[in-house]
Amino acid sequence: MDATQRSRAYLGGLLKYGSLLAVSFIALMPIVVIAMASLKTTKEYLTTGPLDPPANWLNFANFGTAFNNGGMLMAFGNTAFILVISVAGSLLIGSMAAYALSRFEFRFKAIVVFLFLLAAIVPSITAQVATFELVNSMGLFNTRWSAIVLYTSTDIVSIYIFLQFMRGIPKTLDEAAIMDGASHFAIYRKVILPLLKPAIATVMIIKGVAVYNDFYIPYLYMPSKDLGVVSTALQRFKGPFDTRWEVIAAGVVIAIIPTLFIFLGLQRFIYNGLTRGSMK
């Protein structure tokens, strides 16, 4: 390798790692600002800049205020209840829909696929009036089941991920199971589902994070304070005359901790699932 090639390789490496560092800095900076704000007092927050470090790095009083006065324990309970049922329902409906689209030929199949795509393209906010009226007529308004019903509806991303995996599962397995007397539901339960574990893990994490972070649906359909979730619990510290931003920052840090540990522990399933799905 001559000097010109070495200089090009050095410049390419410099640009690559420099861009990675820049993107990492941009992504981590909001978290650092929130973490420092959560350790400041009210006076300190109002008199210092967002990048100024706190005077006392061991000031955890805001965390106690956010957890107790914000009802974070109840919020985590409501969030866990909604998340578990919603993700389980979404996985079941999404995998069944993908199984039907992948394995069966039926009339209007192309129209069904088109309607899925149309539902993904149309902004959900445009259908909120009709959705609200439907949820209210079912008697689900101001209950946790309103969010569960809305979250359980499967999005096209989940179906697409399941479809990519099912295309890599040979149909000869279905034919062999049918020859052994298995029904289509038995094939789905005993043959397809065990082979979809990477896709299930991927969809579960993506859907779970989306439900956990969502603010709009709980705020609109569950206005009662007793039904507060993690994303809406911190609204209690924002009022028309005063806003405790340092306490809200502490609550945000508390809300980030569970998802951070879950993501770090399960990130390989996301990357492997998306990579394997794209290769099938």
Task: Please tally the β strands and state the result.
Answer: 0
**Helix/strand order:** HHHHHHHHHHHHHH
The fraction of residues in strands falls at under 5%
Helix content: over 70%
Distance between the termini: 38 Å
Question: Count the helices. How many?
Answer: 14
Tell me the structural class.
Answer: mainly alpha
Key features?
280 residues; mainly alpha; MetI-like fold; 2 domains; 0% strand
Task: Give a brief outline of the structure.
This protein is an all-alpha fold. The chain has 14 helices and no strands. It has 2 domains: 59 residues; 211 residues, MetI-like fold.
Verbal overview:
The structure is a single chain. This protein is an all-alpha fold. The protein has two domains: 1-59; 69-279, MetI-like fold (Orthogonal Bundle). It has helices spanning 3-38, 42-47, 61-69, 72-103, 109-121, 128-137, 144-152, 156-166, 171-179, 184-195, 197-213, 216-221, 230-233, 245-279. Helix 4 packs parallel to helix 7 (144-152), helix 8 packs parallel to helix 14 and helix 11 runs antiparallel to helix 14. The two termini are 38 Å apart.
Describe the SSE topology.
Layout: H1 3-38, H2 42-47, H3 61-69, H4 72-103, H5 109-121, H6 128-137, H7 144-152, H8 156-166, H9 171-179, H10 184-195, H11 197-213, H12 216-221, H13 230-233, H14 245-279
